[in-house]
Design brief:
Number of domains: 1
CATH topology: YbaK protein
Shape: globular
Distance between the termini: 40 Å
Radius of gyration: 14 Å
Bound molecules: 5'-O-(N-(L-cysteinyl)-sulfamoyl)adenosine
Helix content: 25-40%
CATH class: Alpha Beta
CATH superfamily: YbaK/aminoacyl-tRNA synthetase-associated domain
């Protein structure tokens, strides 16, 4: 098996540390966006678990929303759950808080613990895929495990886009 990049290894180690055997896969094709990931994997875009980081507008704290690939984050719903508005996170903030670059941000294995919300729509699938540390790395899992893995709160935090 080809060896994983350092960032992908970090995610594989975080999964193992939580007792999960999900296998990080590094692909030849880009998985940077949900659409690219779905094309590379050969699954529906909705089965991609997007990890979108926000920055609490008053606290400055990082907040992670994991949403189905075809949904957009409902910022009002997140604000209600969070008690503050979820502000935009720039690339530096993402890197600093998670330890990973945009397009590779995984649901687990971050440098700092991050409050996490999970889009309930992702629970509808048997199988989903999430980023695994780089814009070429993913892992397959089941959505129930996503909640266990992240300690995230499942809620209506996203809506169908378009
Ligand atoms: N690897 C795929 C999923 S397998 C992936 O990471 N997709 S994603 O949608 O979760 O990650 C891209 C997300 O990064 C976008 O949804 C967007 O919220 C965010 N993003 C993209 N560009 C920027 C940027 N310039 N600044 C801040 N966030 C960005």
């Amino acid at each position: 098996m080809p060896s994983l990049s350092t960032s992908a290894q970090k995610v594989q180690a975080a999964l193992a540390a939580r007792g999960f055997s999900f296998e990080v896969q590094e692909l030849n094709q880009s998985t940077r966006t949900a659409a690219e990931a779905a094309a590379a994997i050969g699954c529906d875009v909705a089965q991609i678990a997007k990890s979108i980081l926000f920055r609490g507008e008053s606290s400055g704290r990082a907040v992670l929303v994991i949403a189905s690939g075809t949904n957009r984050v409902d910022e009002k719903a997140v604000a209600e759950l969070l008690g503050e508005k979820p502000g935009k996170a720039d690339a530096n903030f993402v890197r600093q808080q998670t330890g990973f670059v945009i397009g590779g941000v995984p649901p687990v294995g971050h440098d700092n613990p991050i409050a996490t919300f999970i889009d309930e729509d992702i629970l509808a699938f048997d199988t989903i895929w999430a980023a695994a540390g780089t814009p070429f790395a993913v892992f397959r899992l089941d959505p129930k495990s996503l909640a266990t893995l992240t300690g995230g709160q499942v809620a209506r935090v996203a809506l169908p886009s378009g």
